[in-house]
Amino acid sequence: MAGKPDTEFAEKRKRLVDALAEERVVRSDAVRKAMLKVPREDFVPAEHRKAAYDDTPLPIPAEATISAPHMHAMYLEAAGLKPGQDVLEVGFGSGILLAYAKELVGAKGSVTGVEISPDVYIFGKRNLERAGYDKKVRLMSGDVTNGALAKEKFDRIFVSATAPEVPKPLTPMLKTGGILIAPVGDAYGNQELVLVMKDKAGKLLMKSLGPVAFVPLRGQYGSRG
Prior knowledge:
The protein is of the alpha/beta class.
């Protein structure tokens, strides 16, 4: 029956978001609407589509993963994205967090993704094309710390792989009042999700959002080159 798979995915998507809301991981109406709209099945490899709405990480190319849905919800709720804001994601992977962010910042906001792995870049780009977001976000290939974006400022910066510390070149790219969220810790050991806020005086305020497990960030300031 035509359209049946999409209907089934939509039903699974709603059950997942309802469960995350019940667990108070999804707390805001804005995040709920974004997660209900973006088709996660378009952001996972074909062989894992049936598991797209399991609340678990799934493998993508180059030994990377698409994070579990609850982790994306944690990022989005902690960031408190508003319409018109400018967002950067370092290590955009599957591309799904870019799509969620675009739903939240709207037409007047901008969303930029940088990915160092050529294979993952192609994978994420194709996913965004499939889901209809390729013309709505800006994608860049390479290491963000090499300076291509050094003069730009963002309201929110997401780092989607773990590093020994928050990559130093990223904090100057935060606007006043901006928020950066990144996993920090050992490549395959203890990690915590850290939120960094830049106050009006330019001081960086940090707090932990709890333990996490991410693949290592590649590049000069990552866990592996």
